[in-house]
Design brief:
- This protein is of the alpha+beta class and about 210 residues long.
- The chain has a domain at about 10-145: Gcn5-related N-acetyltransferase (GNAT) (Aminopeptidase, 3-Layer(aba) Sandwich).
- It contains five helices and eight strands; from the N terminus they run ββαααβββαβαββ.
- An eight-stranded mixed beta sheet has the order 1-2-3-4-5-6-8-7, with helices on both faces.
- A hairpin with a 5-residue loop joins β3 (about 80-85) and β4 (about 90-105).
- α1 (about 30-40) crosses α3.
- Residues about 200-209 have low confidence and may be disordered.
Length: about 210
């Protein structure tokens, strides 16, 4: 019997994650000013790796993006999350980065994690803390079979985050994508998988007991 696929909009996805130092949540209306400030302060660090950092930055555009991120989150088209420092009372401090789940396959339950950090806040383990929280949420609450991190082979800080979070390097894909300058780049592919679920054999049948 064929089972009808579930509508992704009906899948429960946490809109907020709390860690010891961070509040990680779905963007919403009013976040544009915080995004504009954080991204504008970080352009020199972001431009070598992030195509979106080359687009015009204005408060109005940042607010539109924040509202679009919220709409995409609710529709389960993209799961962007803003990263804030966590105050002692559990409230939100300044926005210091972004993360989220992207380019996913709901049927397979495969997700890709992205992340960036505001300049001046690197080297404190904040990205590692955020990525671990999102990966753990995907593997538990979203029943992910596979969570990936893909990054430019030259972006050592990014792939070091993947390794600190327990992702396994599966390979380096040569000339796999174009970089921000339109030139071919090599892409590192890291993954964490749900080892509790048996994989199929090469022939397509069930795995051996």
């Amino acid at each position: 019997m064929t089972v009808a696929p579930i509508d992704p909009r009906l899948i429960e996805v946490p809109m907020r994650l709390d860690t010891p130092r961070l509040v990680i949540r779905c963007p919403r209306a009013g976040d544009g000013a915080s995004y504009f400030e954080a991204v504008s302060a970080s352009l020199d660090a972001l431009k070598p790796w992030m195509p979106w950092a080359h687009e015009p930055q204005t408060p109005e555009r940042s607010e539109a993006l924040a509202r679009g991120f919220h709409a995409d989150f609710i529709a389960r088209r993209d799961l962007v999350m803003a990263v804030f420092l966590r105050r002692a009372d559990g409230g939100e401090g300044p926005l210091v980065g972004g993360t989220g789940l992207h380019r996913f396959d709901w049927a397979l339950r495969r997700f890709e994690i992205g992340y960036w950090i505001r300049s001046g806040h690197g080297g404190q383990g904040l990205v590692t803390e955020a990525v671990n929280a999102v990966a753990d949420m995907a593997l538990t609450q979203l029943a992910a079979r596979r969570v990936e991190i893909r990054c430019d082979d030259r972006n050592r800080p990014s792939w070091r985050v993947a390794e600190r979070c327990g992702f396994v390097l599966e390979g380096v894909l040569r000339n796999e994508a174009l970089d921000v300058q339109g030139l071919p780049r090599d892409t590192r592919v890291y993954a964490r998988v749900d080892a509790s679920r048996p994989a199929s054999t090469a022939a397509g049948g069930p795995a051996a007991p």
